[in-house]
Each structure stands twice: as C-alpha cells, then as structure tokens.
Amino acid sequence: MIFERPASQPETAAPAPGQLRRMMTRLIEGARSRGLDGMYGNILAANSGMIEMVTRLGFKPMPSDGDTMTRNLLLDLRA
C-alpha cells in the first residue's frame, strides 16, 4: 500500500489530521492478516503525539535499555 502526498500539499507540510492513524491502522491490519505475533516501535521520546497515538492503538511500553532519547513500544497481535 502506497500513500501519496497530494500535489497541492508541499513536502514540508504536516500530514493531514488522522492520516498517520489511518496508516498505522492499515499496517496493524496487514500484520495481523499475515499472522505476525507483534509490532515493535522505537519512537523519539520528544515525539509525545506519536507515543500517545500508538498507545491508543494498543502499543504498550517496553522496558528501557537506559536510552532516554527513545521509547520502545510493543503491540501484541496474538490477542
């Protein structure tokens, strides 16, 4: 699945509201349909919006390896 930016939207523009959530939902659905056990995300700690969004999608924090710059999250697809 390819997501293309409309010609009217410059490359530096932020994604349209809901676009990232729709993309993540499609990725999760695709992973489930392929029988994957889970999905892993490594997100910059400063990106609180992304962390909040994936948490609402079911991702759970994983133990830190001491890196304070990133957050590791896991979505269990077996449930």
Any overview of this molecule?
This protein is of the alpha+beta class and 79 residues long. Helix content is 30%, strand content 20%. The protein has two helices and three strands. It has a three-stranded antiparallel sheet, covered by helices on one side. It is flat, with a radius of gyration of 14 Å. The relative contact order is 0.20. The mean pLDDT is 86.
Unreliable parts = none
Span between termini: 25 Å
Portion in strands: 15-25%
Count of discrete alpha- or pi-helical segments spanning 4 or more residues: 2
Judging from the principal axes of the Cα atoms, what is the shape?
Answer: flat
Mean pLDDT: 86
Largest sheet report: 3 strands, antiparallel
The overall strand count is 3
| Helical percentage | 25-40%
Summarize the helix and strand pattern as letters: HEHEE
How are the strands ordered across the major sheet? 1-3-2
The whole-angstrom Rg is 14 Å
- Class inferred from helices and paired strands: alpha+beta
